[in-house]
Sequence to fold (1109 residues):
Amino acid sequence: MNLLLLILIPLLSGIFSFGIREEGVKILALVSTLATLVVSGLLAFSCGCNMATTFSMPWIPDLGTRFSLMGDGMSAMLCLLTGIVMLVVMLVNNNKHVDRPNAFYGHMLLAQAGLMGVFLANDALLFYFFWELALIPVYFLCSQWGGEKRIPVTFKFFIYTFVGSLLMLAGLIYLSVQTPGLRSFAWQDIIHAGSQLPAATQHWLFALMFVAFAIKMPIFPFHTWQPDTYEVSPTPVTIILSALMVKMGLYAVLRWVLPVLPEGAIYWTDTIIVLSVIGIVYASCLAIVQTDIKRLVAYSSIAHMGLMAAVAFMNSKVGMHGVMLQMFNHGINITGIWVIISMIENRWGTRDMRQLGGMATSAPKMAIAFVVISLASVALPLTNGFVGEFMMFNGLFGTSSCSHIVMVIAGLGVILGAVYTLNMIQKTTYGEVVAMNIKGDLAFNEFAGLFIIIGIIIFLGVYPQPMLDLTSAVSSMLIK
Amino acid sequence: MSNYIYLVPLFPLLGFLVNGIFWKSMPKSVGGIIGTLTILASFIVSLMIFFEIRENASHGPAIVTLFPFIQSGKLLIPFAFQVDALSSLFLLIITGIGFLIHVYSTSYMHHDEGMVKYFSYLNLFVFFMLLLVLGANYVVMFIGWEGVGLCSYLLIGFWFKNRDYTNAGKKAFIMNRIGDLGFLVGMLLILLNFGTLSYQEFFGQLKSGSTVISQSSYNWITLCLFIGATGKSAQIPLYTWLPDAMAGPTPVSALIHAATMVTAGIYMIARSNILFDLAPATMHIVAIIGLVTALFAATIAVRQYDIKKVLAYSTVSQLGFMFLALGVGAYTTAVFHVMTHAFFKALLFLGSGSVIHAMGGEQDIRKMGGLGKKMRTTQYTFLIGCLAISGIPGLSGFFSKDEILSHAFSRSPMFYIFGIMAAMMTAYYMFRLYFLTFTGSFRGTEEQKHHLHESPAAMTVPLVILAVLAIVGGYVGLPEVMSEHNEIAEFLAPVVTNFGDFHMAASTEWMLMAISVAVAVVMILVAWSVNKKPSFTPSKGLAKVLENKWYVDEIYDAVIVKPLTAISKLLDSVFEKIMIDGTVNGVGKTVKWGSERVRLLQAGQVGFYIFIMVLGMIALFSISVFWIK
Fold:
């Protein structure tokens, strides 16, 4: 029942939001996200006690699909992440004006419902349904509330990801046809059907489905929609995209591709690792020369996701565990960074780093938060980023023969990461004061949002065990 | 007492939190007092632990596990501390000198509006430095290792409005990161081969020989760790951040960039001495890098005019000596030199801070001169520091440096010759600095001359204490020919298993000592004769190259920084925008173009439709006839 609530609360409050006039919708959004967070916390807690929860009811029997949900450690972790990120987004935007708030928050909550569904669905068709349900509100949010050039950019984003989704759908339908007995979309049946397929079929099927997720993550060279979309989207939407929707891509690979098509995964492993690793260095290099902070962070995110994707295919238990942890950490850290960027944009009226400076003097609390979160994203010890990165690098030393080269190149990414992150801090935070349009350090709601983020950064940096316990069963199941 | 070891890092952590949270509302003096008292508390606990370890030298190390840090399958890394001779000695250096520098800072930073923030950073630094030396496994050491790098970054760029200063901080952080990556890889290689990162288990396996790996693996592991050490301890090729790090407040230079943090690399190798003994090839590299760095940095120090830059290159050079000692297997000697160097280099830096304070921020020694008349305490304590580092008998530097040189001699006379050359230059540049600063006549402005004054007691008392330590600190490590007991070597014996086969005839040792003393005295006299009546003309030839630090920064810029930026810009403007995104858009455009053509077919002409229909039927018919048999 908890599982259903996780989808129903944001769904219903989202639909309800459209009918509410004026600012009252913000309260509804806040209450709804808080309630969802509590439920996802309960789910994570029960999963921590090794109780995987399921929910199932008939949906479209003729197609062999059921409305079935499953909450295991990985799902619970990502639901918790969604809950936390959405709450922070609602908190920090509480004092900001937005046109047509009812529609804006309605779409946001619908996107949340879609995300929760993606992370919980235990049926392939249901998974696809939620996958698109999450995409559509985001498309509207970008195209209506976005910045300059929003129409062509969101059009490209939509078409690009939608093409991927259709490929995935084709793959899932093919798999469901192969299920024994009556046609079924259930996860167990899909896994069974997939692993029975001959190697050659697995090879092309894997490629088909992987492209969808590679676009979403994104993996080099399928990434070009991302910096543009992040740049023009309103920041709350950028947060949903980068903290949560890119995780959908990786989650889908771990849930619907790796265990389903083991032969295909082995066949494509080297290609994926090579592309991911190129992506790490390539995106890091591009991040160095960006002047718009949003684009800088977009490229840094590609680099971080590249490392996760590479390690996920390294066939290492510790590495996979690290990937799980880092999915959560990356979501938290990048949310914090976007929150600060939106505050910068709000106060200084620009995102061009050449025109910024002196935050440490004019808004010191904000500056401290920015520095702490940035350091977490370069994986400094005692922040959450370190533990995940340590475990992932451990995973890079897998059995693969090319692991040493991969290690060196990924390590180059670590160094370049320090370069662009410190550049970003230096240009925005230090130096002579640049006058602000709207004066003021953190307001209370902004402080509260960042407090949550930094609290998690430090807590999981010092004591990551709860999150590791939550995901250990799933990661050892994925790597046999 | 060892069970209370967590108190030692806890106090500075609390100081950091209190000062860090209330930095805005707290009065400056209160922040200073809190910051200083926490370090004093840590120092007292460290002293008690030190004496306990000294009493029970035969006991093994005490391991205090706080909580499991990372646990995943078979991988288990506890957050644990190890208390033994080596860590307790470093505890004393860190908290003892740290305390003196905190006291000094209460006065030095008093006029700075960010004083409370300064003390919170300084406390955080001490916390991480203590983690570094207390860790019972490499991961905890690494936490401290990167943590001190962070504090160094924050404190170098403490006056963050100045772009050069924040650039210096950034440079330090990034260069350290390059080294840290080496450390991380080395660590993971150990984990891969031995399945553990805990010192006890790892060294136990090495000693018992229960896990055997190939010689090249040993070399790679140690080499990776050494790369980490070159970053943190400013050795070639990663040393250029340290001179730039002088942008930070001077007490920071004394504590972080002279006495403690930069010796972390020496600590790491001394800690892993059992491992390094198994990798003679790496040891050779360590010795050579150390020696070359010692020489190279000394040549630069000879022609610098910034009082802090001279001291910074001197630090790089002295660290080189320590690596030379490590490289020839004299681990305890290296640690001994860490200790004496901490005394006299902290003294020299604090002395230079006192000078800069009196000069109103001026650091150029060309504008100083004759300061001794106005600031006697600073002058005499600085002189003691110079005598100690130059290796004048009776002072601490003599004993430790001499021990390094005689170990180097026993390995190879070439090592000794280059070492003595570096020592020669050390004596010269230190006394050049001393004469230009404190003797002769004042060369600055009238206003500065009027402003000259001795610093307050909070600054001079630490100077006097450090001066005393710089004199007597060497007596814990008397050479074989003078005493039967080498206290520090005996104390560290449980940690350092292999003392090598260092035996030298007494006559040789006396002779080596005589040479180094004679060389030092001669060089001091040379420094006096050259600099008693200084004239500063624009330098030419080699002197100019030295003044510009062999143009290493420029070379790095041309070889690494500029190409990286150029390639990145090219990737951004050509590869990303035109090739990748162009392909993506091209696919879209092709589809659109194609659809527009196909659309034309549906023009409403029935005759055309029938024509197409007939074509289709023919096609279907032929397929069914010729294809499907």
